[in-house]
Amino acid sequence: MLEGPRAARKDELEAVVALSNLVFRSKGGDMGREYPTLFCPENAENLRIFLDDGKPVSLVGFTVRDTLIMGATIRVCNVGSVCTHPDYRNRGLATRLLEDSVRKALAEGVVVMLISGGRGLYRRMGCINAGLYHLYRIPKETDLPRLPVEVETWREEDLPDLVRIHQGEPVRYIRDVDEFLTLLRAEMLVNRPADTWTVRLDGEMVAYICVQRPVEEEGVKVLKAREIAGSRLAVLSALPELFDRYGVDRIDIDTVAADEEMKLLGRMIGVRPSLRGFMGTLKIINLRGFFEAIEPYFSERLTEEELWNLEVDFEPELTFRYKGEEFKLSCIEDVTAFIFGSIERERPTPQTPNLSRTLSKLFPMPLVDYGLNFI
Question: How far apart are CA 170 and CA 159, in angstroms?
Fold first, then answer.
């Protein structure tokens, strides 16, 4: 008889990792080593499982993290390693575990659920691909800046500077020192083996670059930088060294679409970005809590008159009102697309002038990218 859904116990971690390895690492690798912040005793409560005869047969794992988005602290959960043993599929176990995970995440104050996948399972519960990001594809022959930077593999003694550089990012995960070190040691970045490079100018660290080890795409050897922090000028100045070290033809850099410095530098070097969405799907699971969290974002972007006159109601649907004008969003998919933007779903917009002008100052707002925090 099946037992669950419930949290994994600490003494069941090995069996939970074995299930994840069976599904995701049949050709080699170890999910426990690669995702140490997910599969650890401290996170066992967030490993939601079904068991049969004491053996885990279905899993939904998640971590809870605070993110910073333009001055607002937003609590998210990263959902990953969603899997079911082949002998137990098509019984709705993953659906029930995902529903259980939402309840658990809400109890921990989560307002946005981020999922590293786009299965029908997630879309049926209202998740969509949202968020707007820029991808800069930089060929080796690009005329790049040439600051005299030193590029070196990260070392543990670099950790205070890595944290300092990361803290300067306006859209980021909030990581303590121990978590940062754990993630770096795992050498994984968005589900691929990775390296992290420090960039120094006159001996001072001014940036870092986290890259997935090279892959070949249509005969082109590509290095992908999935997390950067610090001076974008220094990052671009470090690329010639990385081209040489890896022997690649192109380096791709991902940034949030709101990265103004990278936009300007991209124009200077003649590289126009392409637009991409989040690397998975997401859903705002606590709408009222989300708007409470982004109050600091509102207060910096709107005038006192706009703040005073803008009303937001949540029942029975999300409704914005401003000086007699009204804009309603009736489903969570439209809400998510409106707030974060989406490349797959048409973004609804108000048709009234004052409300449209006011809301355009706020939305779409940036969404954190996974980087090292991918699970």
Answer: 19
d(CA 186, CA 39): 12
Residue range of the domain that includes 204: 133-276
pLDDT of residue 323: 95
Question: CA 235 from chain center: how many Å?
Answer: 21
Question: Domain check: are 265 and 295 in the same one?
Answer: no
Q: What is the CATH number of the domain that holds 114?
A: 3.40.630.30
What tens digit of pLDDT does each residue of 294-344 get?
Answer: 999 999 999 999 999 999 999 889 999 999 999 999 999 999 999 999 999
**Same structural domain for residues 151 and 16?**
no
Domain total in the chain: 3
Residue-wise pLDDT tens digits, 152-180: 999 999 999 999 999 999 999 999 999 99
Question: Residue 197: which of 131, 126, 266, 149 has the closest Cα?
Answer: 149
The C-alpha atoms of residue 362 and residue 137 are separated, in whole angstroms, by: 29
Is residue 222 domain-shared with residue 114, that is, in the same domain?
no
**119-161 pLDDT tens trace:** 999 999 999 999 999 999 999 999 999 999 999 999 999 999 9
Domain boundary (124, 147, 165) is at 124
